[in-house]
Design a protein that fits this description.
The complex is a heterodimer of chains A (about 260) and B (about 270). Chain A is of the alpha/beta class and about 260 residues long. Chain A has helices spanning about 40-50, 70-80, 95-100, 110-115, 120-130, 150-160, 180-195, 205-210, 235-240, 250-265; strands at about 1-10, 15-25, 30-35, 55-60, 65, 80-85, 165-170, 200, 215-220, 225-230. Chain A has one domain: Rossmann fold (3-Layer(aba) Sandwich), CATH 3.40.50.300. Chain A is built from ten helices and ten strands. Mean pLDDT of chain A is about 90; it is low at about 260-265. Chain B contains ten helices and two strands, in the order ββαααααααααα. The chains are: A alpha/beta (about 260), B mainly alpha (about 270).
């Protein structure tokens, strides 16, 4: 469904953030993108919706080639790509409802959106989504009054109300505590399953990634060095992705966590 | 080296010996310049007038007190004019300053090489000329009166408001803008949802701050004939009607205090 073909991004400073990345994501697959800071994870997902312009290569979403689109064509395609951010990136001074509805901006004309006269169907959907993530009672609160976990839920609603085919998720849990992190990851994965959504999740926490996804991509210096199932991440593989470190503890922790999960259920 | 070892003790000083010597020389030069300037000013001062100042001040004080209270009936209209000059001038200035600010801000300007310098030029040129001088020019062009005062205040304020506003625009959180862009929003929608909510508090703060300054500035515009209470002030000064002058000063003081209070309240409510 999504195909990256020899995707290259070279920044003006000469840093090559992506080196001919090849990646294919089938319909409905949730995959985690791991790798050290500066490996090009953020650049990779931003090249897909062209928040960062790729230097060369192709991005194929369905049968549309995104890299050559005009600005209006790009806007139309961006509606099919939801994005969730590390620091939530909610518009702080707008209400929760306005933040969620801002996911519909690509479908609504300027004046309607400016006057906040969204179609009733959009408002209904917004309430449904807020209810799904457990924030229906917060609709009128200002975004900056919410806690981190609640903000990220609003971010998820904003991405989903676009009715996307693909979800790009950039470090969704980096600013959250361990428990909220798991809840948010679980929520994202559940929602993807419910809607048959494909998702690319950038994530630092290897253990958390292994807990929730079906496929892991390891990125190092802008190149894919691992592509496989989460339990294929042996200490050797992690060393290849991140560099020398004692990985036994990380892998053991995952085993413990999974036991806990089972016990909790 | 700021750290010096004497035996087992490590002594630490803020500056090395050389640095502190340099420091003292700088101070010495500064003091010498100050003393020289003092001398030059004192040479070109007619000290007789200065020694005479307390007596003259006392003389004016006795003439000016008590204020001529009944004159207040004639000040209602001029102070109302002054308030209108300040308020209308501020509103016009804001209307013009918003587009200029968006054109001047690095992250919203359509062209950094062509349009941004023009916007910056507008900001610098309107800011650098005092409103009294704008008023003098405008009186020559559109004749004396309140309207000239309004335009003078407006022009003078454009640069001020636009500068503060464009700095606020440049300081916005870009991830919020990114998030709105990623939904497929158009350029104008990104502005309305991603940028405007972030700069609204700054905008409101700038508006009341400038209004507050403009009330003070518009009180003197009458001195050159651009309407408002300054007109009464200048005519009273011309006929040496000191009790009237003191009353006018009291009225101006009251107006400024009230405007300060209002703007403080408004700013408190926004933030």
């Amino acid at each position: 469904m999504l195909r990256l073909d020899k995707l290259v991004k070279t920044y003006k400073t000469g840093d090559q953030a992506l080196k001919a990345v090849e990646l294919e994501v089938p319909e409905g697959q949730v995959l985690a993108l791991i790798g050290p800071s500066g490996a090009g994870k953020s650049t990779l997902i931003r090249c897909i919706n062209r928040l960062v312009e790729p230097t060369s290569g192709k991005v194929q979403l369905g049968d549309v080639e995104l890299t050559t689109l005009s600005s209006s064509g790009l806007r139309r395609e961006r509606r099919r790509i939801g994005m969730i951010f590390q620091e939530y990136a909610l518009v702080e001074r707008l209400t929760v409802m306005e933040n969620v509805l801002s996911g519909r901006l690509g479908y609504v004309g300027f004046w309607r959106s400016f006057l906040r006269r969204f179609p009733q169907s959009d408002v209904d959907e917004a309430f449904r989504l807020l209810d799904r993530v457990g924030l229906a009672h917060m609709a009128d609160k200002r975004a900056d009054e919410l806690s981190g976990g609640q903000r990220q839920r609003v971010g998820i609603c904003r991405a989903l109300i676009q009715n996307p085919a693909l979800l790009l998720v950039d470090e969704p849990t980096a600013s959250l505590d361990p428990k909220t992190s798991r809840q948010i990851m679980r929520l994202i994965c559940e929602l993807c399953k419910e809607r048959g959504l494909a998702a690319i999740i950038n994530i630092h926490d290897v253990a958390l990634a292994q807990m929730f996804v079906q496929r892991v991509i390891g990125l190092r210096f802008g190149a894919v060095v691992y592509d496989g199932p989460p339990d294929g991440l042996t200490p050797d593989k992690l060393t290849e992705i991140y560099g020398e470190e004692d990985w036994e503890a990380t892998i053991e922790a995952i085993g413990d966590d999974e036991d806990e999960e089972v016990a909790a259920q | 080296m700021p750290v010096r070892e004497t035996g087992s003790v490590k002594e630490w000083q803020r500056r090395t010996g050389r640095e502190s010597l340099f420091h003292w020389v700088l101070w010495l030069i500064g003091i010498a310049i100050f003393a020289y300037c003092w001398q030059r000013i004192s040479e070109s001062t007619t000290w007789f007038f200065v020694w005479d100042a307390p007596r003259i001040a006392n003389d004016i004080w006795t003439r000016a007190t008590p204020p001529r209270w009944e004159y207040i009936t004639q000040l209602g209209k001029p102070i109302w004019d002054t308030l209108n000059i300040a308020t209308l001038g501020t509103i016009f200035a804001l209307i013009l300053a918003v587009p200029v600010a968006f054109l001047a801000a690095r992250n919203t300007t359509p062209s950094a090489y062509l349009i941004r310098p023009i916007a910056l030029l507008i900001i610098v040129s309107t800011r650098s000329i005092n409103s009294l001088i704008w008023a003098l020019l405008l009186i020559a062009i559109i004749g004396p009166g309140v309207f000239a005062g309004v335009i003078a205040i407006a022009i003078r304020s454009i640069g001020f408001c636009a500068k503060l506003l464009y700095e606020a625009i440049e300081e916005i959180d870009t991830t919020q803008v990114e998030a709105i862009t990623a939904t497929g929003a158009s350029r104008w929608q990104v502005m309305a949802y991603g940028i405007v909510p972030q700069i609204l508090p700054a905008f409101a703060g700038i508006a009341v701050f400038r209004w507050d300054i403009n009330i003070r500035e518009s009180t003197v515009l009458g001195l050159v004939g651009a309407g408002g209470i300054g007109l009464q002030l200048s005519s009273s000064l011309n006929v040496l009607a000191w009790p009237q002058v003191s009353l006018i000063l009291l009225v101006i003081l009251a107006a400024v205090v009230i405007s300060e209070w209002v703007s403080a309240k408004v700013r408190g409510a926004i933030i």
